[in-house]
Amino acid sequence: MDEAEQDKYLKLFCSRLKEEIFHPITHHNQIWKSDPYDIENIHQESRDCFERLLNRINIPEKLDSGRIMLLLGDSGAGKTHLMRAFRNYTHEKALGYFAYMQMTSSVSNYASYALRNAIDSFDKPYSESSRNMTGLMHLSNALIERENIVSLSDIGKLRNDELDQNELNDLVNKIADDILNKERERFHKVDLDLIRALLYLQNDEPATHARVLKYLRCESMSEYDCKILGNITPRIQEDDPDRLLQALAHLMMAINSGTFIICLDQLEDIHPADEAEIKFRRAMEKMTKLAEIPNVIVVIACLQDIYELLKGHLPHSQLDRIEHDPDTIFLRSARNEAEIRKLISVRLDDLYDSNQIDSNAEESIYPFQQETPTLLAGMSTRQILEWCRQQREHAIQTGKLPLLPANDSRDHPHLPTELPSLPSNLKLSQLWNDYFNGPHLVPNTENEKLQLLKCAIKHCGEELNKTYKFHFSERDSFLDIDIQNATGNIKQHLTLGLCEKPPQGGALTRQIDHLQGIAVNRTAIAIRSVKFPDTPKAKIAQRLGQFVAKGGKKVMISDSDWRRMVAMESFRSQYKQKPEFMEWLNNERPLLSLPSVQQILELEYITTISKPEIENRSGERINEQAKPLTPENQHESSSSTSRLKIGMLQGYQPCPFNIEISQFVRHAAFLGSSGSGKTTLALNIIEQLLLQSIPAILLDRKGDLCSYAKEEAWRSPISDPTRAAIRESLYDKIEVIVYTPGAIKGQGRPLNIPIAPKGLGFLTSGEREQLSNQTAFSLGRMLGYKVSNQDNKSRIVILGQAISILSELSPDQALTINQLIDFIDSEDSRLLNAIGKLEPKLFKRLVQDLQTLALGQGNLFAQTGELLSTESLFGHSSDNRMKTNKTRLSIINTTNLGNNDNVLFWVSQLLLDMGRFASKSPSDKLQGVMLLDEADLYLPAQSKPVTKEPLESLLKRARSAGIGLMLATQSPGDLDYKSRDQISSWFIGCVKEKTALDKLRPMLSEAKTDVTNKLAIQSTGEFYAIHNREVKSIKADPSLVQASQVSAEEILRLASKERVNPISAFFQNLFLSS
Q: What is the pLDDT of residues 160-177, one digit of tens each?
């Protein structure tokens, strides 16, 4: 880096831009937003454990009970940061629902406390990519959108029709009865009133939503409240909160909506409270009881020394559940040199990237000196970030480079030490925590809500220590706010209006028109207590997009946010005289931290407090081309064999080793070094499945799997006449198709990928959103977007929303890259409505990047060949050009795709399309299999390619669709084993590398026989087969076709022609000659 470049970086470092990048504290109000600076290999053991607990939820045979995960560590070890990572991992991957609560409480009924915090957690946006879709709405959608349970007609009526109260009640009761009648066994433990309450959320009426929230919190309800919810019986008995928590868990399990995670953070805050031992025991009793439900995970985080003081008051049986199911994890607070370098570099990358300055070096930490991580090694994350923050502040004031840290903090005044907690602030945090968890009546009328919002924003001025002033004036039913900064300049002119009317009959449109008309040149902000309508085909979605295009903003204030505003009014009047109140208010910022308030005030220009502080305490779906592959339409099989012989058991008396076909629904892995015979074993199994009319897909990286398309491979001598006859039978039974994605036009058989597959729009809203976001992430990686950069992350969100909307608008069509570019470039009103605001620079740069990608990688997206389709790969699409009754063997050779990034992107789209197929084609029998050779490239342990998340997701989804995945690798040490519980059958050949053996040891230790020390001495074809902890030593049979390297030129030739049946060729020649 030359001197001119250094000056450029230093100038930006010494500016006030992104002052928050080195903020050292994770507050509880940040839990709901992903951390752009998260370093995944910090606390890796904890993350792996949590991910494994999540993965097991989809495996019925492992669901004996829930689990309790105990995390212990010192202050500053990063416990709350880890909770944030857990929450966002769960929700971004749509694996469940995360309830977070801090134990800064003196309540005695912990079930009630846990329930109210859970409902508040679920009332937050489900994920950043889902915008204003709350967790409760996500759960309600998952309930009503289950395939072939509730008719599309009834869903449409409930969401869109103008219904009077009696019609609404009748429809909700009808849908609830439909759900129970069609899935009675699955829902036998689910509370009927809970189903009805969640169904009422589908009706876009703020008053109804408010009553549902009161019911779910087990608060008192008036007779009128109950009438609005169909005369529902309120839950006001002491043990009702406990029962409702259990009912929520059972409902999530019944609708396959994942895990119910309850996180108790900062458990140590019970310790100073009166009767701490009794309260601790009660809290643990409630949590261990709840954790008996199979899909519940309880995460407990506590200071290690405080936990040791409290644990003595628990019975041994309870301690065993808490500490050994799984084992307690001790968080290491001391960071090493590599971790520190990453902590600093990822933040500086964001600072520089946000100003279009490339750091040009991996993990560059300039202007910090290179020795800095070495000298900071051994300190906690909080201390490191606080030191960096102080050094940046020093650089801002002096314009000089940061200093080197001293070797001993006692000799260095700028090196922070851990600060003790302040009892007075802790007491206020506890009082506030308990206070807002009590019942608070939210106003019903729009005018009352506007006045409440005015008071809340005025209060935010106090939280900012009056560095910003808010000037208010009212016009009609609107509120004007001028925001003045510390220098006296007016930074923003806002006009706020409540827009609570329903969209039916144009009522909401008229409110939006009125607000925009009265705002004139001010920023118009539409406030709503429920989600703004976002159905792309609805006129109101286009009108809201036009509103956004003209500079308007949409802000949804959830019920939990309104309740906090109400609570703060009375809490402030009660405690404002306390001398420590203002300090607590400035540090805690209880209202300024609300997502809705941040959206209104645009907090990115409001700096965070730089003062070092302690860790906070406080009709039915029908798609003719999307029929599931059932035994009737999948294949005609002459054999009823359900077991495959794949080799011989080794031992004193060798005998055939057979395996049930059904096992492969739960996936298989083949591990072994080069020459172990792992691929041959996998092909042996696939050949037998093909003989049973089960189609297969082979993902061919090297070219050897294309041997199945060569006539010579089928004519090589076989001495065993029985095997020769079986090979002849296989040859007659299958249809081999070689695809060459990326090949230029006129060569091979290209297989092109759409941006989104046909049929994506027919999936449930949750599935469509997840697949759209995964596609957007893959595209973002191709575009070079780093998720640590906020602008790039926003562009990925725009991509995801655009893909989702277009797939919903044209569900019968595949989405091309040109359509995507045109849609984003037009700044379509429906897209703007989904995004929430217009940011021209983001749209312009995104369109430019997509155009460059389309031009530079045209072979990836060309529409001249066949389009990728799982149905076609399995040989069951209506446009199958061969029109045969043979079983399909599809071989996809990736050598023409070019570099590794292209290959990974293409494979990620294949995995996403298979995920789409799995969602709409459920089956409890094996429909097809796919072999991924060199699987460590797609599911590596140490990196996160675009294939990783789709493959992890498909391992879960594919089981319910009868699609078996086969992962083979000659580098077992490089494979990520966090998803190992999704794979039921393991075949492990010769493995000698220490890294691989170390990786396999935890998994092998779970088997009844530990064979780790025997793996290295196995010869070719020898494997240990592991299934349900049983271990068998086998000698595998060879495959009927021997895979050998096929040249690139021959692969193109094989792909461009159809295999000719000799008998068909004879008759064709006969007719031609006559």
A: 888 999 999 999 999 999
Q: Positive or negative CA dihedral for 213, 215, 218, 221?
A: positive
CA distance 299 to 263: 5
Number of H helices, E strands in the chain: 40, 23
Q: How far, in Å, CA of 1002 to CA of 989, rounded?
A: 17
What pLDDT digit, counting tens, does each position of 469-489 carry?
Answer: 899 999 989 999 999 887 788
Angle, nearest 10°, between helix axes 276-290 and 240-254? 30
CA angle 875-879-884, nearest 5°?
Answer: 50
The Cα 751–Cα 892 span in angstroms is: 9
Q: Is pLDDT at 186 greater than 90 in this prediction?
A: no
Task: Give the 3-state DSSP-derived string for 87-152, with helices as H, strands as E and coil as C.
Answer: HHHHHHCCCEEEEEEECCCCCCCHHHHHHHHHHHHHCCECCHHHCCCEHHHHHHHHHHCCCCCCCH
Give bridge partners of residue 97 from the DSSP assignment. 260
Q: Residues 6 or more apart from 325 whose CB is under 8 A from it?
A: 67, 68
Q: Is the pLDDT assigned to residue 417 strictly greater than 80?
A: no
CB atoms within 10 A of CB 752: 20
Q: How far is it between the farthest Cα atoms of the chain?
A: 108
The count of other CB atoms within 10 Å of the CB of residue 1022 is 21
Q: Are 279 and 273 in contact (CB under 8 A)?
A: yes
DSSP state letter for 672: -
For the domain made up of 664-752+868-1048, give the CATH fold: Rossmann fold (3.40.50)
pLDDT band at 387 (very low <50, low <70, confident <90, very high): very high
CA distances to 331, 333, 336 from 78, in Å: 8, 7, 14
Neighbours of 410 (CB within 10 A): 8
Do residues 739 and 749 lie in contact, with contact meaning Cβ atoms separated by under 8 Å? yes
Closest of 811, 696, 722 to residue 759, by C-alpha: 811
pLDDT value, residue 605: 43
Q: What is the sign of the dihedral through the CA atoms of 602, 604, 605 and 610?
A: positive
Cα separation, 437 vs 108, whole angstroms: 13
- Structure-token pair, residue 934: 């060199």
Concatenated DSSP letters for 282-334?
Answer: HHHHHHHHHTTSTTEEEEEEEEHHHHHHHGGGS-HHHHHHHHBTTB-EEPP--
Place of tokens 């010192």: 74
**Pairing between strand 866-867 and 1030-1036?**
unpaired
Residue 691 scores a pLDDT above 90? yes
Distance CA 770, CA 786 (A): 19
Peptide bond just before 326 cis, omega within 30 deg: yes
Residue 620: is its pLDDT beyond 50?
no
Contact 94, 325 (CB under 8 A): no
- pLDDT for 1068: 42
* β-pairing verdict for 1022-1027 and 1030-1036: antiparallel
Residue keyed to tokens 């001249």: 864
Q: Which helix (H) or strand (E) holds 470?
A: strand 469-475
Q: pTM (2 decimals)?
A: 0.82
Which amino acid appears at position 485 of this protein?
N
Kindly state the helix (H) or strand (E) to which residue 70 belongs, with its residue range. Answer: strand 67-73
CATH topology identical between 43-330 and 664-752+868-1048? yes
Query: What's CA 207's distance to the chain center, in Å?
Result: 31
Single-letter amino acid code for the residue at 309: L
How far, in Å, are 275, 479, 557, 867, 1037 from residue 445 at the CA level? 43, 15, 14, 53, 75
Residue 407 pLDDT grade (very low, low, confident, very high; cuts 50, 70, 90): low
Cα–Cα distances (Å) from 252 to 189, 198, 223, 439, 958, in that order, read 11, 12, 29, 26, 20
pLDDT of residue 993: 87
Domain boundaries, the chain: 3-24+336-411, 43-330, 424-605, 664-752+868-1048, 754-866
Q: In what order do the strands lie in the sheet with 259-265?
A: 96-102, 259-265, 296-303, 67-73, 329-330
Domain boundaries 43-330, CATH class: alpha beta
Residue type, 226: C
